[in-house]
Specification:
It is a single chain. This protein is an alpha+beta fold. The chain is built from 4 helices and 3 strands; from the N terminus they run αααβββα. It binds zinc ion. The site of zinc ion has 8 residues, from loops.
Length: about 110
């Protein structure tokens, strides 16, 4: 998961680590109101759906790069320790070096979902 995907209360220290000012107080007020209007009713079902959405967005079945949003493409390693093994690489390579190894467990999960 990317560093901004946080479980539990750790988001407080993540937010506090940010020091740059991007919005005025008035803009912050507007953003909070917009979020409140669009917010789903807090419930266990909403939470389960949110976690499932995250898992899918960051799993091997996802076709977009979690780092830059470009398409992921299936490639075969040409050299190194994983030579001959398939992996998902970012189509933005070499600008983005994101890779996702395809292992048996994830392939199984993927076929169970479809
Ligand atoms: Zn990328």
């Amino acid at each position: 998961m990317p560093e901004n995907v946080i479980y539990g209360w750790r988001y407080i220290s993540y937010i506090k680590s940010k020091k740059e000012i991007f919005f005025t107080d008035e803009e912050v007020e507007n953003i909070i109101n917009t979020i409140k209007e669009a917010q789903l009713k807090p419930s266990i079902m909403t939470e389960i759906q949110h976690v499932n959405n995250l898992k899918q967005a960051h799993s091997a079945s996802s076709t977009t790069c979690p780092q830059c949003g470009a398409q992921l493409v299936r490639r075969v390693a040409k050299k190194g320790r994983y030579k001959g093994k398939e992996f998902l690489g970012c189509s933005n390579y070499p600008r983005c070096k994101y890779i996702h190894n395809i292992n048996k467990k994830q392939t199984k999960e993927f076929s169970a979902n479809t």
